Here is the input.
Amino acid sequence: MKLIRAAEILIDKIKRDYKEEVAVVVMMGSHLYGETHRLSDLDMYFVVNTPRGYELGRTFIIDGIGFDFWPISWDRMERIANHDERITAIITEGQILYYGSEADLARFNALKDKALDASDIRKFLGKAENVLNNAYKPYFELEKCDDLTASRKKAINIVFSVTNAIALLNRDTVKRGRGKLKGELLAMPLVPYNFEKYYDVLFQSAQVSEIKVAMKALLEETSNLIKRTRSDYDATRPEDVKEKLTGFYEELINFYNKITHGIEIKDYVTVFYAANEIVLELEDAFSGTGVSLEALPDIISSFDPNRMEAYGNIVATHQRALEALLSNLGIEISVFKDFEELSLVVGGL
Here is the structure.
């Protein structure tokens, strides 16, 4: 059966009745790689220009083969091109079967160029870290499992996030998936230690304990690889400190104020939350700058609800030390004497 006939019929319908509504029709999957078999389906999606275009979306079966002709918005295409979803390959690898206008074609190709742009290493490192974080919830749930079926379900979700994180770390996207996924990832330059071993356990072991050990190791090795890659990159390409930290302290000061007020009213819960927020914000802001924060006091371990006055002094020392550090880096803190001075400055802009 020539499955492409389904695409031809749908495209004829677009040309007749939906020319203004549909921008492009794209084919993906095994047909692009010449790897079809007698039960292969035809993967297609179309991008809509108007809400009416969604009417064309449909699923159907012919000779036992399922077809999914699914609509997608330009907004979602933007997110996919930005690697915010795992399926970026539908743009980078897809073959256009139809386009409504030259403008539609140009818009799609612009998104393809964006999706293929792997120049921003920091962006991909951040996305890899965020995606890997999605694996910790199913891992926590896996640790509570005793049933093999439930364990395998949680583990496959872990693998789903880990493999996406690995692809992003390599500034690439998962193209084939399923049976070819392992080989695709092993061909990438950056792969976690013993990835193949831990990956195979999920599909070969019937022991819940073995699956748990393998998934934990897979998460740890992937996390370590991301950290090493970030460290190596930061060592060679530190971020511009002034550009990254300008305006940072002006927002952070409110957390110091929360601590001061919390101590005054004996709200020690808020005090500790605020201290933790300061530390997290600092770690994030100074990451990749090459600037050490070791000179700042440890306001987490020194927290003691029974010695709040002393703790307040430690936090005040921390604040002064941060101000001095920023000053040494040439970062000016924007401070106005009063509202009148603000008015004068803003009025002169």
Q: What stands out?
A: The CA atoms of residues 132 and 162 lie 6 Å apart. The chain has a mean pLDDT of 90.
